[in-house]
């Protein structure tokens, strides 16, 4: 009997066409449902690559302790993958993260340290650095780790190309660590340089989990502006409204970053006469039930 591990079910997520939120002849909007990954988000891909490649390079070995700053999904994915791959995981994250995320990471066996909310993800990054130097933990550093976009070059991009039979014309993704959009851009443009890559960023002052603008000091090294053709700003209200609509009108239960991604995709759809748009649905909505999104 041929058996499989949980890792074998990372990727190959569904690509589904919207039925209600867009009805425009000549324009197709497809949603890539990354919540179908074992850990419930697109971050499973990067988490597996970052840990497994570090083991292959002998940067770490089984039994070692890793540390990483996270706002949520990456932490859950790392907690899962660390346990499967035989390493220990310490995660630092802002204390205003939803309780579902914290409990899920701890359920997978990770140690979670909450940092002051007013310091944001930058504060969590700074604390992870302290632990690296004080305790000797290995820091994966998803923001500067090129195994992050590599995961999407090797898996997400090829899946989109395959499942659209090469007909994709536009790719839309929320921009957080920027690993997804960078890796997918590299792959899709290697197949057809005319594919347009669009990133979603928050408007000034908007707080959308999973989407952010970086200060120059904390800009991820993996981010390459030239790999993105257009950037659309999305407001907190737009992201929340679309998140609710996705659940009620499409049966797609997701978080606000996905709402921001799809709100941006609809703006793209309005601006073209013909095309196949693929938007990333980053995760599942069940890890946001304690927030006010669905109230």
Automatic annotation (TrEMBL):
GO molecular function: cysteine synthase activity
Amino-acid biosynthesis found in the keyword field: yes
Enzymatic reactions: O-acetyl-L-serine + hydrogen sulfide = L-cysteine + acetate
Domain Tryptophan synthase beta chain-like PALP intervals: 8-283
Keyword Transferase attributed: yes
Keywords per UniProt: Amino-acid biosynthesis, Cysteine biosynthesis, Pyridoxal phosphate, Transferase
Pathway assigned in UniProt: Amino-acid biosynthesis; L-cysteine biosynthesis; L-cysteine from L-serine: step 2/2
Cofactor or coenzyme needed: pyridoxal 5'-phosphate
Modified residues (N6-(pyridoxal phosphate)lysine): 43
List of residues binding pyridoxal 5'-phosphate: 73, 176-180, 257
InterPro entries: Cys_synth, Cys_Synth/Cystath_Beta-Synth, CysM, P-phosphate_BS, TrpB-like_PALP, TrpB-like_PALP_sf
Classification via SUPFAM superfamilies: Tryptophan synthase beta subunit-like PLP-dependent enzymes
One Pfam family cited in the UniProt record for this chain: PALP
EC numbers on record: 2.5.1.47
One biological process term in Gene Ontology: cysteine biosynthetic process from serine
Family: Belongs to the cysteine synthase/cystathionine beta-synthase family.
Protein name per its UniProtKB record: Cysteine synthase
Species annotation: Polaribacter sejongensis
Taxonomy of the source species: Bacteria, Pseudomonadati, Bacteroidota, Flavobacteriia, Flavobacteriales
Gene: cysM
């Amino acid at each position: 009997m041929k058996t499989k591990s949980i890792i074998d079910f990372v990727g190959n997520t569904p690509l589904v066409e919207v039925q209600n939120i867009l009805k425009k002849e000549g324009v197709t909007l497809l949603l890539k449902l990354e919540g179908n990954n074992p850990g419930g988000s697109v971050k499973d891909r990067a988490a597996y690559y970052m840990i497994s490649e570090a083991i292959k390079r002998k940067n770490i070995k089984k039994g070692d302790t890793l540390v990483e700053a996270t706002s949520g999904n990456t932490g859950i994915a790392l907690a899962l993958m660390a346990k499967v791959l035989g390493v220990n995981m310490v995660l630092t994250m802002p204390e205003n993260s939803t309780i579902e995320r914290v409990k899920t990471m701890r359920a997978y066996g990770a140690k979670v340290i909450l940092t002051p909310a007013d310091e944001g993800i930058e504060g969590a990054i700074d604390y992870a650095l302290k632990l690296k130097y004080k305790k000797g933990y290995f820091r994966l550093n998803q923001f500067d780790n090129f195994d992050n976009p590599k995961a999407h070059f090797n898996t997400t991009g090829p899946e989109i190309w395959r499942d659209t039979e090469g007909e994709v014309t536009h790719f839309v993704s929320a921009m957080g660590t920027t690993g997804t959009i960078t890796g997918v851009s590299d792959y899709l443009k290697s197949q057809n340089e005319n594919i347009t890559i669009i990133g979603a960023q928050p408007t000034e002052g908007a707080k959308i989990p999973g989407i952010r603008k970086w200060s120059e000091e904390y800009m991820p090294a993996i981010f390459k502006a030239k790999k993105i053709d257009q950037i659309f700003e999305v407001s907190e209200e737009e992201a929340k409204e679309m998140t609710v609509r996705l659940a009620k009108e499409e049966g797609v239960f997701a978080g606000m970053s996905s709402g921001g991604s799809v709100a941006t995709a609809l703006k793209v759809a309005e601006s073209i006469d013909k095309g196949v748009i693929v938007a990333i649905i980053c995760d599942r909505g069940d890890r946001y039930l304690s927030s006010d999104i669905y109230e």
